[in-house]
Specification:
- The protein contains six helices and two strands; from the N terminus they run ααααββαα.
- With about 140 residues, the protein is mainly alpha-helical.
- Strands 1-2 form a two-stranded antiparallel sheet.
- Helix 1 crosses helix 5 and helix 3 crosses helix 4.
């Protein structure tokens, strides 16, 4: 049984790796990376969020997210504003919103290609299964 579980874990990782490579490569055409675009998505979903919250949302350490946010700020994609106490809030600039929108178009095409081998019903089933797995992990 352990061999089958290890194979399943590797297959999930391999699919993720292939998807990330394809996204990162395609996003270069609009002048961004997957890590940057993912940060813009997280900020868009939670305007005013702290670096700690955004690091968790993007699966990064606070230090790594802080470095990335500094680059995004230097590129005029993100604005950092003082919040309550020592909190620094993150907001998208107009340019950041434009890159985010362009990235959505790129991602839609790349992900359609990545999942093209699966019919709609299989994609729906896969999404449901992955949500159940992540919900189980979140409950712990």
């Amino acid at each position: 049984m352990h061999g089958e579980l290890q194979e399943l874990g590797r297959a999930v990782k391999q699919a993720q790796y292939r998807q990330h490579r394809a996204l990162d490569s395609a996003l270069q055409a609009i002048g961004t990376t997957l890590a940057q675009w993912d940060a813009l998505r997280a900020i868009s979903r939670s305007p005013g969020a702290s670096a700690r919250e955004l690091a968790a949302a993007t699966f990064q350490t606070e230090q790594a997210f802080g470095t990335l946010a500094g680059r995004l700020t230097a590129q005029d994609l993100v604005e950092r504003r003082p919040g309550h106490g020592r909190r620094i809030e993150h907001h998208l600039t107009t340019v950041g919103e434009q890159i985010l929108a362009a990235g959505h178009k790129v991602a839609d095409k790349v992900l359609a290609d990545c999942f093209s081998a699966l019919p709609d019903t299989d994609r729906t089933t896969l999404l449901d299964l992955l949500r159940r797995l992540t919900a189980q992990g979140d409950a712990r």
